[in-house]
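Researcher: Here's my situation. A collaborator sent me these components and asked whether they could plausibly form a single complex. I don't have experimental data yet, so a predicted model of the whole assembly would be a useful starting point for our discussion.
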Amino acid sequence: MYILAIDTSNQALGVALVKDNEIVGELVTNIAKNHSVRLMPAIEHLMKEVDVKPEELSKVVVAKGPGSYTGVRIGLTTAKTLAWSLGIPVVGVSSLEVLAYRAKLSNNLICPFFDARRGLVYTGLYENNHEKLVLVKEERNTLFADWLDKLSALSKPIVFLSPDIQKNKEIITEKLGSNAVIPEMTYHIPKPSDLALAAQDKEIDETHMLTPNYLRLAEAEANWLKTQKDMQNG
Amino acid sequence: MMKDTYILGIETSCDETAVAIVKNGREIISNVVASQIESHKRFGGVVPEIASRHHVEQITLVLEEAIAESKLDWDDIDAISVTEGPGLVGALLIGVNAAKALAFAKSKPLVGVHHIAGHIYANRLEEEFQFPLLALIVSGGHTELVLMKEHGSYEVIGETRDDAAGEAYDKVARMLNLPYPGGPHIDRLAAEGEVTIDFPRAWLEDDSFDFSFSGLKSAVINKIHNAKQKGIELKQEDIAASFQASVIDVLATKTVKAAKQHNVKQVIVAGGVAANRGLRAELEAKFSETDIPLLIPPLKLCTDNAAMIAAAGTINFEQGKRSGMDLNANPSLILR
Ligand SMILES: [Zn+2]
């Protein structure tokens, strides 16, 4: 039986099929094109190529964000509907954790991040602890400069991973100096096979209850909560 | 004997997550609608990002309920139909992607449906169509007169050049400090008031079936402002009645004229504003003077639902229209 992994949470679109700890197939593109149009054809293509039928799937794994709100929802809707209609479990994995897997071999701290515009990033801090990636600083939506100050204070080497690494290289080395470890380009794109791997020891999500990991309230909701608070405080 | 056709429909174009199953395009087997209206009320209108968030939370639940309610097996379902547009793009995307996943998992044909075709076909769940027919579609996003000469063929013979009728309702309702959605509140107030203000009616060119409501909207706003400045107290009920009279007069008059000109056998009213009592009464009065039958669906089929998408999808399916796995949401899809 096969595990289908889906990641449309950021610019890269990734689909993988994994069977008994073996990657059967993997498809990744890293272009700014419509995930909604391309996701199902990608799944269809990959499954056809390796001759796997929908009924042969035993689990669906999905990157649940953070990232593009729309991208995250496209992946989640597809994964949830596939899982529900095939009667198989679904597991959601943080998109930051998936990206952190690219540096799992490192003994350093790992900082994956996605650009969230206006100087903000979605990020967290991971570490390889006895062959397992663990979250050592919780995921957040924060000003990148502030976050880098916090990381700099740790005075430890940190691996930075991001599809947006190019435009952020300068500020990272400026703040962390020689503690900034920035690998080559092949490490900065999340891989859907890592996603399948990351889901291995995770508990199954209740299909209906699986929701995106936005890390941020919708703007209208944040404003609404603020006015409610202001009203309470008079 | 012909085999029965069962089509599953999915609708997520605005703030309702809906799934339904329809038999032979005419009989509702199950019809589930999860409304988000309570969530959007606090914002005074539908917030697209919030709508998308709710859809992704609801979609599999609503699917499950619709299948359970139908007591059908997947083998019975002939195709998956879904609203591909128009609507809010982020909201549409949830339905489209769910439909594609479903069609793929269950190896069913996928059929994209135009939201307005759905509103028109809501009527076929009540009564069989007679062609040619004329459909008046009035909702928050649409004011259109559509001529149909046969199933699945749509000719827009009139449309709004600015605001949709429902939009004008919502804006006037906001001016009157009525809660969202404002349409039903204006309708209720109008029934209690009197037409004391002669608001403008945009007839446009003599031979045009197009509409325009932005002038009327501005006239109402100006009237309220001027009265306030002069310290004149205007009765809310009378403003509502006068505004509604102007909207309804134009809608009903143009619909009757178009129906006569095109010799239609039926007139259909569709869309959320079709629930408006004032509009229903005026259309019924005007068409009772003709021999053209007027069809207005029951209230729950006027507002967004998926049974109407499955009903319209049945025609597309029967006519061999199919969508591919690359189907996308199209917020400005054209009806044709
Ligand atoms: Zn509608």
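Model: Some features of this prediction you could bring to your collaborator: Residues B 115, 119, 139, 271-272, 304 surround zinc ion (CB under 6 Å). The interface with chain B takes residues 34, 36-41, 43-44, 54, 69-70, 73-74, 76-82, 84-86, 207-208, 211-212, 214, 218-221, 224 of chain A (CB under 8 Å).
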